[in-house]
Amino acid sequence: LRLQPNITLFETTPDKYSSTIGNYDLTVFDGTMPLHPPSGSILFVDPPDGTYAFGTSGKQTGVSHISKGTDPFNLLTNVDLSNIHVIHDSHQLQPALWAQTVLAATETPLLIAGENNNRRIAALGFDLHASDLPLQPAFPILMHNLMNWFLPPSVPEDVPLMPGVPLTVQIWPGADHVTITGPDKQVTTVGPPFPVTPYTKTDSVGLYHVKQTVHGRILDGAFAINLFNAGQSRLAPARSLPIVHSTNVTSNGNAVPRQLREIWPWIAAFLLLVLCVEWWLFSRSYKIQTSLSRRADSRKLARGNFLQRASVKNAWVAAVQGRVQKCYTMIRKRAKKAVKQVKKYRVIQDSRGR
Question: What is the pTM of this model?
Answer without folding.
Answer: 0.58
